[in-house]
TrEMBL record:
This is Iron export permease protein FetB. The chain crosses the membrane at residues 13-30, 42-61, 67-88, 100-122, 128-148, 195-213, 225-247. The keyword Nuclease does not apply. Keywords: Membrane, Transmembrane, Transmembrane helix. The keyword Ion transport does not apply. It is a multi-pass membrane protein. It is found in: Membrane. It holds the Pfam family UPF0014. PANTHER family: PROTEIN ALUMINUM SENSITIVE 3, UPF0014 INNER MEMBRANE PROTEIN YBBM-RELATED. Its main location: membrane. GO terms for cellular component: plasma membrane. Belongs to the UPF0014 family. It comes from the Bacteria.
């Protein structure tokens, strides 16, 4: 017999929030110096989720395309900016590359899911469009950020070999394809790991939410299977796109490695 989802009071949420003390205790015991970051992360989690809760309540009440679409665009831009913040190095145009790769891959795959697989009508139904795009964006930005970071690190570590290959007449792609492969692999690994244990070790958020809301477990599983494959496709496309855009930024048309474009992120932040 299915039950309605239990409503949580502010007191219940507060009890759960106190569990962050465990993280703080670990940080203090091991002298990790993460107490302030943990406190700030906890505050941000509460504020951001409460804010999006109120926003989604308003969006669900006024389900119009001119309300849903701007929110989806904002989510994508935030994901693009977040995807460009990882790593010790950066380059001019990294933020634009992150936004473009995340935007194209996520929206293309989300369109397939909404129009072809789930076939919702209208397409901007916020109950489906916003959560599905959000899950795709969250995983795609992980792949993109890891891919860009690994590409820069691999090119830095292999600079001598890259320069030597170019000096011996190799094209820019021949010199860069090794680091590019490693970068794409790094970006795809998190999704592959997630797919390997889904349903056995972990129960994904969408499936858990549907089950808690009283949905049939088998129907919830079907939705989760669809979401997992959408995430996998978008993560792969986004990672490949980001790595290729990074490659185009760091290699000239004259087949030269533009190592001077790789900048230390800490130095840049001080300027």
């Amino acid at each position: 017999m299915s039950q309605t989802l239990q409503n949580l009071s502010l007191w219940d949420v507060g009890i759960a929030a106190l569990l962050i003390v465990v993280n703080g205790a670990v940080s203090v015991a091991l002298k990790l110096d993460l107490e302030r970051k943990l406190a700030w992360a906890a505050v941000r989690t509460i504020v951001q989720l409460l804010a999006i809760g109120y926003v989604l309540g308003w969006v669900f009440a006024y389900a119009r395309w001119f309300v849903v679409l701007p929110l989806m665009i904002l989510m994508t831009l935030i994901a693009g900016f977040a995807g460009a913040q990882r790593g010790l190095r950066t380059y001019a145009g990294q933020r634009a590359d992150s936004i473009v790769s995340i935007w194209i891959s996520s929206w293309l795959v989300a369109a397939v899911g909404l129009f072809v697989v789930i076939r919702i009508h209208p397409w901007y139904e916020p109950q489906y469009a916003i959560p599905i795009l959000g899950m795709i964006l969250g995983n795609t930005l992980t792949g993109v950020s890891l891919g860009i970071e690994r590409m820069m690190e691999e090119l830095t570590a292999r600079r001598d070999r890259v320069d030597m290959a170019l000096a011996l007449g190799a094209t820019r792609w021949e010199a860069a394809q090794g680091p590019a492969r490693q970068a794409v692999r790094a970006g795809m690994i998190p999704t592959l790991n997630q797919m390997a244990v889904v349903g056995v070790v972990s129960l994904p958020g969408m499936m858990t939410g549907q089950v808690l809301a009283g949905q049939s477990p088998l129907q919830a599983v079907r939705y989760q299977i669809v979401i997992m494959f959408l995430i996998a496709a978008s993560s792969a496309l986004g990672t490949v796109g980001a790595v290729l855009l990074t490659y185009r930024r760091l290699f000239s048309a004259e087949h030269r490695f533009l190592a001077s474009r790789l900048l230390d992120r800490q130095v840049q932040s001080r300027r």
